[in-house]
Design goal:
- The complex is a heterodimer of chains A (269) and B (199).
- With 269 residues, chain A is mostly helical.
- In chain A, 75% of the residues lie in helices and 0% in strands.
- Chain A has twelve helices and no strands.
- Chain A is elongated and about 90 Å long.
- Chain B is globular, with a radius of gyration of 17 Å.
- Chain B starts with 12 loop residues before the first helix and ends in a 7-residue tail after the last helix.
- Chain B is mainly alpha-helical and 199 residues long.
- Chain B has eight helices and no strands.
- About 7% of the residues of chain B have low confidence.
- Classes of the chains: A mainly alpha (269), B mainly alpha (199).
- At the A-B interface, helix 2, helix 4 and helix 5 of A face helix 2, helix 3, helix 4, helix 5 and helix 6 of B.
Chain lengths: 269, 199
């Protein structure tokens, strides 16, 4: 009878129940019912056997004696930053770095803004470049195209870079260094070279270059001049916005720093 | 048939309670007494959760530091499940740290390198030991392929002999969830490990 019953009702083992049986986590009645079932059900018997073997395998793994003591020293618990910490205290820990970044951005944009107002900055240089390009014999096509695009490029690279800096204190060291010199860095040299090239030798480059300044290129120069004056206001607003943000972040960082110091003092045993 | 708890070495409950009381008041020496009582089991939990002795030592150390720092959050009840919870979290952190270091992988290292040393066992011959070592490495590798929750439940139950109730307390889930995690974990290990040589 039992055998026939087994054949006509193939059984899907209840793994949870069988597993609990292995661990002795079932009450007496459940144990009895399950054991009597398993004795007549091949599927469940196989499953039960498999679970027992896995448990035995795990139990057979050696208990390892640690080779060091884990007793804590005073320095272990009085160090400033726990590694298993919440994200809030992580932000507090980042505050000094954040403040340094915000300060760099603040100073960088101030410096840039001043140089812009003076007219000795990139816009003025671009204008001079555009003018000199029209007359210059050494000004080549590459520098000309660069001059036309240069303000757009610089304006685009300043604002997002600053924004990215504020949001990623982890990159503070590398990026902070990049912001301040950038106005005088990558953007500048080609323009300067072209300008200086014009001064050095009128003959450099020769008449070939002069004949290549056709009407199309004159239009480009005019467009560059127009764009630089339009960009002035745009750039100034962008700088102002960045300065305000940097100032706010500085203030927040200062506040956070004070709070953190207070917390650290309270936390000491 | 309940497997006797391998972890239930008779740590005198009175002593532990006294140490705990003083540790709760910030007494580092008292806390270190608790460290001495529990470090072996915490270390072994960490070892099985992260796979290598070096990582296990880091996780174990972090666990005890976190436990002392957060001792104020211990609201009574059993100390050991509370401590194991902190250890499990430290293991998760250690695995994440390891994942960020490109040179190391999450999987257990190839057998022979950085292997957990076997417990000194005088009787078996070298062949048996080698076999055990190989099997232990295979089981450890399979363990690391379980989801964290299942691995923790299976390790606490089968290796450390915790009852379902203690595991539920340590992991803050229901008994039913504990049962299910253990069952699924074992099933997965069955699929990952070859049948022969396991008897």
């Amino acid at each position: 009878m039992k055998l026939l019953g087994f054949l006509s009702h193939p059984h899907k083992p209840d793994i949870g129940a069988l597993s609990a049986l292995v661990d002795g986590a079932l009450d007496a009645a459940a144990v009895q019912a399950l054991e009597s079932h398993t004795s007549g059900c091949a599927a469940c018997a196989t499953e039960l056997d498999g679970l027992r073997r896995v448990k035995a395998m795990l139990a057979a793994l050696p208990q390892v004696e640690p080779t060091r003591s884990f007793r804590l020293r005073r320095s272990d618990v009085e160090a400033p930053a726990p590694r298993v910490s919440s994200s809030a205290s992580g932000l507090l820990r980042a505050m000094p770095a954040l403040a340094a970044v915000a300060a760099a951005v603040f100073v960088g944009t101030l410096a840039t803004d001043f140089s812009t107002r003076d007219g000795g900055g990139r816009q003025a240089t671009a204008r001079v470049t555009a003018d000199s390009a029209a007359e210059s014999l050494s000004m080549d096509d590459r520098a000309l195209e660069f001059g036309a695009d240069q303000d757009a490029t610089i304006a685009n690279s300043e604002a997002p870079a600053a924004g990215a800096l504020v949001g990623t204190p982890a990159d503070a060291d590398g990026a902070a260094g990049a912001v301040a010199p950038q106005p005088g860095g990558a953007a500048e040299p080609p323009v300067q070279d072209a300008f200086e090239g014009e001064e050095d030798g009128a003959g450099v480059g020769g008449s070939d270059n002069a004949t290549r300044l056709d009407t199309k290129q004159m239009d480009t120069i005019e467009a560059a001049r127009a764009q630089t004056s339009d960009d002035d206001d745009g750039n100034r607003s962008a700088f102002l916005a960045v300065e305000v943000i940097a100032g706010v972040v500085l203030a927040a960082a200062a506040a956070g720093f004070v709070v953190n110091r207070r917390k650290t003092r309270e936390g000491q045993v | 048939m309940v497997t006797p708890s391998r972890d239930a070495s008779p740590a005198p409950a009175d002593d532990e309670a006294a140490h705990l009381r003083r540790a709760l008041a910030g007494d580092l020496d008292a806390f270190n007494r608790l460290v001495e009582l529990h470090q072996r089991s915490v270390f072994n939990l960490c070892l099985r959760m992260v796979g290598t002795p070096a990582s296990a030592e880091d996780a174990c150390q972090e666990a005890f530091i976190a436990a002392f720092r957060n001792i104020a959050s211990f609201r009574g009840g059993n100390f050991r499940p509370w401590l194991m919870r902190i250890a499990a979290n430290a293991c998760t952190d250690e695995l994440r740290r390891r994942a960020r270091r490109p040179a190391l992988s999450l999987d257990a290292p190839p057998p022979g390198s950085d292997e957990p040393p076997d417990v000194a066992d005088a009787t078996p011959g070298p062949e048996t030991q080698a076999l055990r070592s190989e099997q232990a490495a295979a089981v450890q590798a399979a363990l690391l392929r379980l989801p964290h929750d299942q691995r923790l439940a299976v390790v606490m139950c089968d290796m450390q002999g915790y009852a379902y109730e203690e595991i539920a307390e340590a992991t803050r889930v229901s008994l039913g969830t504990v049962k299910s995690r253990i069952a699924r974990g074992r099933e997965k290990l069955r699929a990952l490990l070859p049948a022969e040589g396991n008897k």
